[in-house]
UniProtKB/TrEMBL annotation, chain A:
Tree of life domain: Bacteria
Domain Metalloprotease TldD/E central: start-end pairs: 125-194
Any one GO molecular-function label of the UniProt entry: metallopeptidase activity
Keywords from the UniProt entry: Hydrolase, Protease
Name assigned to this protein: Predicted Zn-dependent protease or its inactivated homolog
A Pfam short name: PmbA_TldD_2nd
Organism per entry: Dyadobacter koreensis
Similarity comment: Belongs to the peptidase U62 family.
Span of domain Metalloprotease TldD/E N-terminal: 32-89
PANTHER family: CONSERVED PROTEIN, TLDD PROTEIN
GO biological process: proteolysis
Domain named Metalloprotease TldD/E C-terminal: residues: 222-442
UniProtKB/TrEMBL annotation, chain B:
InterPro entries, alphabetized: Metalloprtase-TldD/E_C (IPR045569), Metalloprtase-TldD/E_cen_dom (IPR045570), Metalloprtase-TldD/E_N (IPR002510), Peptidase_U62_metallo (IPR051463), TldD/PmbA_N (IPR035068), TldD/PmbA_sf (IPR036059)
Taxonomy, superkingdom: Bacteria
SUPFAM superfamilies given in the database record: Putative modulator of DNA gyrase, PmbA/TldD
Residue ranges of every copy of the Metalloprotease TldD/E central domain listed in the record: 152-238
Family according to the record: Belongs to the peptidase U62 family.
Domain Metalloprotease TldD/E N-terminal, residue spans: 54-119
Protease keyword on record: yes
GO molecular function: metallopeptidase activity
Name under which the protein is recorded: TldD protein
Length: 448, 537
């Protein structure tokens, strides 16, 4: 019942709209079934499943809006919710930045739903966990992992004729394997819409190899190094940068895209010319949401109903677009480009192994950890390497090295791009392994 | 994301629950007799299906957020979430199930049966049966946070007027932009267990805060200054200022009462001053750390590594493990810090975010030593961990962030004890030849075993030959936990003691958020490595 069909969702939304007495009304209906299994010390620690179906109604009088939410769907409850949203709206202060609701939109077809994922049950999860734990037990290693699968839908409609519906599935898996002496640790993470693409044993094998190879790490002096960031390491820094491309902050002069003397750096070449970043909700590897102002794979993040489309953010190193709220776009007289739900960093054809082979001296980074902004002006971030850091010499991994703390800006990093390999999916984005020169490590960490 | 979240980033997840009117937040909830009846339905159903232990949490969670920028109200959000979570042990294994909006015995009994079924299913993969530290039942008892004014009773208009008033003061004092927020939380929790406890608790939290931004258009540079308030386990009374709650000095800081108007006026001026402040020269400095800053260093480098579940490896895939391994504790000689360093865990401290009468598994709360005269002496443990460290009872620090989340070990308030010898901040600074005085929390990051950390701040003042020599910027310090706490040479006395804290300590998969306070007086750390964070892009 948690995942309604398009027709079932539309029927409820139409009923809600018919109860309205306000100037404007919109209804958002979301449902999901989320299951998880977590393990540590080679044993399951928690697992569970939760379903949710929820309706959110926003009523508007002039520039005053109010929202009420409910998870009961009989006519009486629906009407009560509409009345409550209207009462809250009438009591609310006027929002001078309110923009009237959108009319009908043309949404792209996205293929974000997989029957295989929707069919997952507790036994399936337990088996997936077993396939990850068992090889670790057999090799005398310790596993800790987490699996979460989601099946859900999102629908929205308003009294201006807008209606949208999308259903989606996803599965996220991460595994840390540690040697029992505590000196080695390896990590792998995978995410897909279609669970049939996920092999927990295969991902665990990667983590096992890294754990075994990372024991007895040597200390290198902190400083500037050529690094190869695996997609699981690069994604966090890139996501932080993409999350800072809001146009209003740039126009107001409080963003890395603000410019000396006022204005923004839109149209400026800010990165190496091989940097190309775009978003595409129809990409088959990372199918996104057809509507909404961003917010991930279920389209529930944005309530204004803007159609998602293909957007080029950075082309040949030049900033081509920023994203806007509808209010700010109207004020600036520009198209209200919505933030994306995932992005694609265009790469080449080289594999991670190829990049390693072509490196004279460098450091391979599996994962970055506890990344926090140090200076929003320059997008300087700090954080640490974790779960598999290795020294490369003459095209080969020579030995494990102790973890480093870095202080680096993705803007500087993407100016120091040496090579981008073949992209792979990481946290809902497509990211290539990146070879970067002069990456700044500022201290050593004893952590394994 | 693991670790401590930043306010704005964590807000969407935090504001879970249904959206309601502000008036609905004041509506009375279920009578305690009804809650007892529902709880008994859960406990009886669990026992009849074979559970050897069961607890039930019937929770109503209320949040209100008032969010403004400059002269505009951006959003007012009121949320309510109600439901029941049932945890059981069957076949020696934990099982958990939760049900939203449950009002009938039958709904709750069904959830209890589901929890038992999950426990039995998971017991096939179990290595060792769960063993709980003994806990006596307390019968029917209650606890209320000792607040003077319930923030939810204050009309929204009064809150909006307060924020727009402080925003106006910021703009008049040189700010280019200002964002301000009031966060208010009320947890109404009823706990019952097969040990014979029926515990009714009413918990309040409050956090007023802001960010002021100053811009220099000519250079394209901007600087911010965040509020020096702390999230507190208090009601609206936190905003009633009293001269005795103010610590005057180079800038005013606050104890149990916060003057938002005064702080934002200073903040606007200081944000402008930061634009032309001297960029720090990297090197070793003696650091004088104000409690509004030091709380975060305590949180990351003491609170987390001494969580027993991390030490044992239960967080290995996400939040990480800990350098403070059992052998170090067993040695009884591990020098966590200098002799000046006494670190205390406390779930009873009045006004703190972690204060409750009983934790989320029915254990009465307490206070205990973690580090005594510099030596590691204990961890934070709950009922199913107590025996691992030879404790006869739990420390009472089990928490779930919602009725729908399973409770697990969370951080108690962890604080640095004040120095025993009378010492003021001015006297402390007088002895420092080359140092930096840091006020307010800023950027923060620490590795997954809690060795290497880096912290920023809000305000940095250079100390030269015992005197404040002016404002600095681009400051961050890096150290190693054991090295840092062993470099602590002095802690000011109790007159300077204040609490800091966070609403958003993240841990677990799926991640749960917990609120926790950390107290200290100003402390001095010698020879800490300071880096310069300025870059050009």
């Amino acid at each position: 019942m948690a995942v309604l069909s398009k027709e079932e969702a539309k029927q409820i939304i139409d009923k809600v709209l018919a109860f309205s007495k306000a100037d404007e009304i919109s209804a958002g209906l979301t449902g999901s079934r989320v299951g998880n299994i977590r393990y540590a010390r080679n044993s399951v620690s928690t697992s569970g499943e939760a379903t949710n179906l929820s309706l959110s109604v926003t009523s508007v009088y002039g520039k005053k809006s109010g929202t009420a939410t409910i998870n009961e769907f009989d006519d009486k409850s629906l009407e009560k919710t509409v009345r409550r949203a209207e009462e809250i709206a009438q009591l609310a202060p006027e929002n001078p930045e309110y923009v009237p609701m959108l009319g009908p939109q043309n949404y792209l077809e996205v293929n974000s739903f997989a029957e295989s994922t929707a069919a997952i049950n507790p036994d399936f999860r337990a088996e997936a966990a077993f396939k990850s734990i068992d090889p670790c037990v057999k090799k005398g290693l310790t596993s800790a992992g987490y699996w979460e699968d989601r099946t859900g839908f999102s629908a929205m409609g308003n009294n201006k004729g807008l209606f949208g519906y999308n259903k989606a599935t996803s599965v996220d898996f991460s595994i840390t394997v540690r040697t029992n002496d505590g000196l080695g640790s390896g990590y792998a993470a995978r995410d897909y819409n279609d669970v049939s693409k996920l092999d927990t044993a295969l991902a665990t094998e990667v983590a096992i190899q890294k754990a075994q190879a990372s024991s007895k790490a040597r200390a290198l002096e902190p400083g500037k190094y050529t690094v190869i960031l695996e997609p699981t390491a690069a994604v966090d820094l890139l996501q932080n940068m993409m999350g800072s491309m809001d146009a209003r902050n740039a126009d107001e002069g409080r963003s890395f895209l603000g410019k000396k003397g006022g204005g923004t750096r839109l149209g400026e070449k800010l990165f190496d010319e091989r940097v190309n970043i775009y978003s595409d909700p129809q990409n088959l590897e990372i199918p996104g949401s057809p509507f909404g102002g961003g917010g991930g794979r279920f389209g529930g993040g944005g309530s204004d109903g803007r159609a998602q489309e293909k957007v080029v953010w950075v082309e040949n190193g030049v900033v081509k677009n920023m994203y806007y709220s509808r209010y700010w776009a109207e004020k600036k007289g520009v198209k209200a480009i919505a933030p994306p739900s995932g992005f694609i960093f265009a790469g080449g054809t080289e594999s991670l192994a190829d990049l390693i082979k072509g490196t004279e001296k460098g450091i391979l980074v599996t994962r970055l950890w506890y990344i926090r902004a140090v200076d929003p002006q320059t997008l300087l971030y700090t954080g640490l390497t974790r779960d598999g850091t290795f020294y490369i010499e003459n095209g080969q991994i020579k030995y494990p090295v102790k973890n480093f703390r870095f202080n680096e800006s993705p803007v500087i990093m993407l100016n120091n791009l040496e090579a981008a390999g073949k992209p792979m999916r990481a946290s809902g984005n497509l990211i290539p392994p990146l070879k970067i020169r002069d990456f700044t490590f500022t201290s050593l960490s004893d952590a394994v | 994301m693991a670790g401590l979240g930043t306010g704005a980033m964590m807000l969407p997840g935090f504001a879970s629950g249904r959206t309601v009117s502000p008036e609905a937040l004041m509506e009375p909830w279920l009578d305690v007799a009804v809650k007892k009846r529902l709880a008994d339905a859960a406990l009886n159903a669990a026992k009849s299906k074979g559970a050897t232990y069961a607890d039930v949490r019937i929770g109503r969670y209320l949040n209100q957020f008032v969010i403004t920028r400059e002269d505009k109200v951006q959003n007012i959000v009121n949320t309510e979430s109600y439901g029941v979570g049932i945890r059981v042990i069957a076949n020696g294994c934990w099982g958990f199930a939760a049900v939203a909006d449950a009002q009938s015995d039958a709904q709750i009994a069904k959830a209890a049966e589901d929890a038992v079924a999950i426990a039995k299913a998971n017991s096939r993969l179990m290595k060792e049966p769960v063993e709980l530290a003994p806990q006596k039942g307390f019968g029917e008892v209650s606890w209320k946070a000792p607040i003077k004014k319930n923030a939810f009773e204050v009309p929204v208009k009064e809150k909006v007027d307060l924020l727009l008033g402080v925003n106006d003061a910021a703009m008049k004092n040189g700010a280019n932009y200002v964002n301000s927020v009031l966060f208010m939380v009320n947890e109404q929790k009823y706990f019952a267990s097969t040990d014979g406890s029926y515990i009714d608790q009413d918990i309040h939290r409050m956090w007023p805060n802001f960010t002021v931004t100053a811009i220099d258009p000519a250079s394209g540079k901007f600087q911010t200054r965040n509020s020096l308030s702390a999230p507190m386990g208090m009601g609206y009374d936190y905003l009633q200022t009293n001269p005795k709650d103010k610590v005057t000095g180079i800038t005013t800081r606050y104890n149990m009462g916060y003057d938002m108007l005064e702080d934002i006026t200073s903040a606007a001026q200081q944000a402008k001053m930061k634009l032309s402040a001297k960029s720090v020269e990297a090197g070793k400095y003696d650091l004088v750390l104000d409690p509004s800053h030091l709380w975060l260093t305590i949180h990351e480098s003491v609170g987390h590594p001494l969580e027993l579940d991390r030490v044992l490896g239960y967080e290995a895939n996400f939040a990480g493990t800990s350098f403070a391994t059992l052998d170090k504790w067993q040695s009884k000689s591990f020098k966590y810090g200098s002799d000046q360093v006494n670190l205390i865990a406390d779930k009873t401290q009045v006004g703190s975010l972690g204060a409750v009468g009983w934790d989320d598994e029915g254990v009465n709360t307490k206070k205990w030593d973690l580090v005594k005269d510099g030596i590691l002496v204990n961890y934070q443990a709950i009922r199913d961990q107590a025996k691992i460290i030879g404790e006869k009872e739990s420390h009472g620090c089990c928490y779930a962030d919602s009725w729908s989340s399973v409770q697990f070990q969370r951080m108690a308030n962890v604080s640095l004890a004040s120095g025993k010898t009378p010492l003021s901040v001015e006297e402390m600074i007088k002895d420092v030849k080359k140092g930096i005085y840091i006020i307010g929390d800023g950027s923060f990051s620490i590795d997954q075993q809690r060795y290497n950390f880096q912290f920023g701040g809000q305000l940095f003042y250079e100390i030269k030959d015992g005197k404040i020599a002016g404002m600095l910027k681009d400051v961050a310090y890096q150290s190693n936990t054991q090295e840092f706490w062993n470099s602590c040479v002095k802690v000011c006395d109790d007159r300077d003691y204040r609490l800091g804290g966070s609403f958003f300590d993240g841990k677990g998969q799926p991640s749960q958020s917990s609120a926790v306070s950390h107290g200290s007086s100003t402390a001095r750390f010698n020879g800490v490595n300071v880096i310069n964070t300025a870059r050009k892009i």
